[in-house]
Amino acid sequence: MTPPDAHSQTGQGGIRKQVVLPFGKSLRISIQSLRVRFFRNCVTVMTLVLAVAFLAFILISANIASGLLESGGATARQMLIRAGYDLAEDALRVGSSPKDHWIVGLSLLVCTVGIVNAQLMSVTERFREIGTMKCLGALDSFILRLFLLEASIQGVIGAATGCLLGVLAAISVGLIRFGFPALTSLPVAEALASLALSAVVGLVLSMIGVLYPAIIAARMQPVEAMRAEE
């Protein structure tokens, strides 16, 4: 009897059976791979954490300043100007400065390059593992799925941790600069939107960073992978 996760295909060479592993099994393999390379993965996640934390800090700080400006009137405006914010006379909102945009962009770029480099090194270390799986019949899509699952797990952990650190840092700096009103005037909906944006950016960066190394691993021929390891 054909197992439920097997597909029979008829071609010129006869009948072939292709065993398709369920998603849960792929997830367990990915988690096990992350555990085996725990410290290397920690470096990758920390790179993502720092980038997301900085982005969240910039966005939440702007939300705090906007909340103060809307609720505090002229007094809050003068307080923000003394704190270094460049505000026009009729400004009703506080946005990030061009300098902040450049710094955030560079940090995200460095984060992406770091993830790509770490994943390429991971592929190099896993030549024999990839070759063995391919010799056992693993398809390119299965190898690609493993790397994308690992990147997704790293992205979720890194983005969540980065958002938490970023919002804590922004609130702490706001309390030091403006006192308790920085917390009470913080618009919750806008802050949540900023955190969601930071988390999505972190997850996307993780996926982009692993895409090229994952394609290389998926397209690798079994013989080449086994030979490169020796």
Blueprint (SSEs and pairs):
Layout: E1 6-11, E2 14-19, H1 23-36, H2 38-82, H3 98-125, H4 127-135, H5 140-178, H6 181-184, H7 188-219, H8 222-229
Antiparallel strand pairs: 1-2
Helix pairs in contact: 1-5, 2-3, 2-5, 2-7, 3-7, 4-8, 5-7
Tell how many strands the DSSP assignment holds.
2
For the largest beta sheet, what order do the strands appear in spatially? Answer: 1-2
Distance between the first and last residues' Cα: 40 Å
On the 0 to 100 scale, the average pLDDT is 78
- If you compute it from the alpha carbons, what radius of gyration comes out, rounded to the nearest whole angstrom? 24 Å
* Approximate shape: elongated
H/E element sequence: EEHHHHHHHH
Output the structural class. mainly alpha
Low-confidence stretches are 1-15
| Number of H- or I-type helical stretches | 8
Number of domains: 1
Helix content: over 70%
DSSP strand (E) fraction?
A: 5-15%
| Major sheet details | 2 strands, antiparallel
Main location: membrane
GO molecular function: transmembrane transporter activity
Protein name: ABC3 transporter permease C-terminal domain-containing protein
Domain ABC3 transporter permease C-terminal: 103-222
